[in-house]
Amino acid sequence: MCYNFIMKETTRQKLIDATYEEVYSHGYQGAALADILTKAGVHKGSMYHFFGSKKEMALVAIQEKIAERFGTRYRSITDAEGGYLESFFAMLRDDSLRDFSRGCPLANLVQEMSNLDEDFDRVLKEIYAQFRNVLKQIYDAAIRAGEMKTCDTNKLALFSIAVLEGAILSAKASGNPKDYLDSVEMLIEYIEITKRSV
Amino acid sequence: MCYNFIMKETTRQKLIDATYEEVYSHGYQGAALADILTKAGVHKGSMYHFFGSKKEMALVAIQEKIAERFGTRYRSITDAEGGYLESFFAMLRDDSLRDFSRGCPLANLVQEMSNLDEDFDRVLKEIYAQFRNVLKQIYDAAIRAGEMKTCDTNKLALFSIAVLEGAILSAKASGNPKDYLDSVEMLIEYIEITKRSV
Question: Which residue of A has its CA nearest to B161?
Fold first, then answer.
């Protein structure tokens, strides 16, 4: 029983990982189910034990993998005891965290699918709102710690995501990671000048 | 002869327009050649008089239609005699110019195709660089007219595009055009505070 359970979990995880990678590289429409199954090393019949369709599998993969990505990256900042803005800026400046060739997995899917499919639209709306809420929490924590003046952190989170997504897109378009770094530096300048406590 | 020439031009333009619309709505990979031809009202055989493939037709459509879009929208600002920043800000604030359901046609294609195909990558790099250069020209004109302090207009153009693209993406993700407007307002605040002549 226990062995079967582990096998099932492993097969499911292999499918999730392969789906995420293929969709990230080729887009949802460009990701062929046959390639996903080959990458996962799983037969189509086994897939149907876990997911009813390529679409259902993709939606679950997006939710689990992108949530995991945000979880490890941003929650470590809010879980700390202070230095919220410094940690956040350091994370923004760390271009090793980004894959500029493929871009942002969330933005790619919004661009591709939000206007084409209601189920994708709903899932992507939720993830985008979660992302915005995580950044809002970082700014709220920074205000409570006296690192920033009181401001509309919901709007600042929105603006920060816009810059971040636009910066990754610019670097993907130009092939130059410096375009990401330069854009992010101007976001930091904006926050330092208009929001910092003196 | 003359009539034939006009017919040819019309057929070509119908193909370009239909390709652009289908690619804008469904992405390049999601745009079926059959649907493009139906929309254009052109037979496949006629298409091959003008373009060797769906890909060639899409690349030409992107170049012509996006260049036209930038041309009418941004060049009118640089061609004016002054009020460069005001005209630019007014244009940014005019959300009627944007299709938030489909997003930005340039950004969509960068997200979808830049890492998948060298020809798309090259064409999209060129268009993105042109876009950046048009915004740089607006800021350069504003500096010459004494509306702004001297600054690195190349970097400011990069940042402006990042915000603009990220703002359109946010509105597409949330389904709320106000997310675009709020983001753009913070870009304008950044420029007003850090770059305006006093």
Answer: A166
d(CA B184, CA B164): 7
**Beta-strand (E) ranges in chain A?**
none
A57 — pLDDT class (breaks 50, 70, 90): very high
What's A148's DSSP letter? Answer: B
Could you tell me which of A196, A180, A74 has the C-alpha nearest to residue A127?
Answer: A74
Show the 3-state SS of chain B: CHHHHHHHHHHHHHHHHHHHHHHHHHCCCCCCHHHHHHHHCCCHHHHHHHCCCHHHHHHHHHHHHHHHHHHHHHHHHHCCCCCHHHHHHHHHHCHHHCCCCCCCHHHHHHHHHCCCCHHHHHHHHHHHHHHHHHHHHHHHHHHHCCCECCCCHHHHHHHHHHHHHHHHHHHHHHCCHHHHHHHHHHHHHHHHHHHECC
User: Which pLDDT score, from 0 to 100, does residue B2 have?
Assistant: 58
Sign of torsion over alpha carbons B77, B79, B80, B84: positive
**CB-based contacts of A122: which residues, under 8 Å, 6+ apart?**
none
Chain A from 119 to 158: CB within 8 A of any B CB:
121, 124-125, 128-129, 155-156, 158
Q: Which of B17, B8, B21, B28 is nearest to B121 (CA)?
A: B28
Which of A38, A128, A103, A115 has its CA nearest to residue B107?
Answer: A103
Measured in degrees and rounded to the nearest 5, phi and psi for residue B32 equal -85, 135
User: pLDDT digit string (tens) for B128-170?
Assistant: 999 999 999 999 999 999 999 999 999 999 999 999 999 999 9
- φ and ψ of A43, to 5 deg: -80, 155
Q: Is the CB of A194 inside 8 Å of chain B's CB atoms?
A: yes
ipTM of the complex as predicted: 0.90
What pTM value is reported for the model? 0.91
Please report the DSSP string for A124-138 in residue order.
HHHHHHHHHHHHHHH
Q: Do B128 and A183 touch (CB under 8 A)?
A: no
Within 8 A of B116 by CB-CB distance, chain A residues are 25-26, 30
Q: To the nearest whole number, what is the mean pLDDT of chain B? A: 92
Tally of CB atoms within 10 A around B26 = 19
Apex CA A104: angle with CA B103 and CA A63, to 5°?
95
Q: Which domains does chain A possess?
A: 2-195 (1.10.357.10)
CA distance B193 to B108: 31
